[in-house]
Structures are given as C-alpha cells and as structure tokens.
Amino acid sequence: MRSEKSAKMTSLRVLLVADIHECQEVSSSLVAADHTVLPLNDVDEASEAISLQQFDAILLGDSISEESVSEFASKLRRLERAQQSATRTAIFCLGNEPSAEIKSVAGTCSPVDGYLSKRLDGTAFTDAVIQLAQTFPEAAMTSSDSNRDLPVFELAGFQEQVGYDPDLFSEIIDLFLLEGEEQIPAMRSALAKRDFDELGRVAHTIKGSLGSLHAPRARTRAEQLESAARSRNNERCCHFLSLLEDDIQELEQQLRIVRSTVSQQ
Description:
Number of helices: 10
Largest sheet: 6 strands, mixed
CATH topology of the largest domain: Rossmann fold
Strand content: 5-15%
CATH class of the largest domain: Alpha Beta
Number of strands: 6
Number of domains: 2
Low-confidence stretches: 1-9, 97-102, 137-144
Distance between the termini: 66 Å
Strand order of the largest sheet: 2-1-3-4-6-5
Shape: elongated
CATH superfamily of the largest domain: Response regulator
Structural class: alpha/beta
Radius of gyration: 21 Å
C-alpha cells in the first residue's frame, strides 16, 4: 500500500530540458500519465525555472553535456539546502536504450538519480520518483551542521597575514578564485570515478589554501572531506564534497566583495 505522501505524487510536476524533438517525444507520454510538464530547450532557462518554482522531477535530454548536467544538479541541491526544502527533486537523464525500464543510480555519487529511455512508461516513471522520495528522507535535508557556526572569512586575520599590502591581498584572492574553477570539477570527477587518492590530494591542497585565506568554515569542511577520502568512505565523501561546494560558494561571494572594496581604495 502506498503512503499518503506517495499518493500525493501520482500527478507530478516535471521539468523537461531537451531539444525540441525530445521534448515532443517525451512530453506526450508524461501528459498521458496525468503529469504536468514544463518543456525547455536550454539548461540556463532550466536553472532560472528551479529558482522560481518547485518540481517533483527533472528530465535532462542526452543533448546536454555531462559538465552541464553536473553543474545544474549541483545548483539544484544547493538551492534545496539554502531553502531548507522538505523534499528532494529527482533528476533523470534521457537515453536511447530500447528498454523503458528506469535504471536507478541512487546511493552513488552520480549527479543524477537514474537514467531512462525516451520511450518511457508514465506509470513506471511515477513509481521511480516515489521510490526515490522514500530513499532520501526529508529529515536529511534539514540535518544540523555544527560547521555553520564557524566564520566564513576572517578579514582582519587575512589582512594581518599579508601585511596590509593591498596588491598581495588581491593577488592571493584572485589566485584562489582561479584555482577553484579547476579544483571543484576535479574533485567531482575523482569522486565519480571513486579515485579517493586524487580526491584526498585535491581536498588537501584546498585545505591549505583555505587556511591561508583565514576561511575556517570551508577549511574544516575540506579537512573532513580529506579524512573521508582517506578512509575511502564513498557516502561520507559525497556528503562532505557537497557541503564544501556550498561553503566555498559563500566564501567566494565574500571574497569578491572585499576584493572589489580593496581595489577601489
């Protein structure tokens, strides 16, 4: 027997991001199963859509690059955490498999929850979304985090470290922001491959940079990730990498603000 929560999900709000042909092909099956579909052809439009409304499931077409899928999924999960959402939106990628069965990757560190054929069965799709909602309990979205009590950035300590030199101040911040553009994707890639040695190496490097920046919250998180990688604990690595991305994003926002202030002095 389905739970009350599952019963409410029999009619789903679905965000479909694919090319025009894929949208037409998949939408008909979903609408026939009594789902509401918002078809979009661009991942940037989809990013804007998830910030404005909530969906039960998201389908991403095979024309979307792996990098874009990963970035989109990370943005969605950050948004859910920031909003302390009581639900978790399922993400599926469309493929060309002849089978209409859904291949779930729940429990792995894939940015998506599963893969399915474009010729999907609406009822099977509904069941998969319900199953994922039960796999990831609501309480996990609102769990406490002691690291949130740590400062994001200690400006006074960093200024003292660079000897109040505005040029050195800006140079170190610019270097950190530039390196982050490569390090975050590198950690995602290492985790997807379960290359814990590489993940730990990059986490260790970032930990050192964050210590130099006087960013205790993200530094502690990087240390936790490094420890999880050392123990080769896939689940903990997934957890701490996701949180580290959140912390670094918040840190980068503050760094850009102070960097702009210093450059104007």
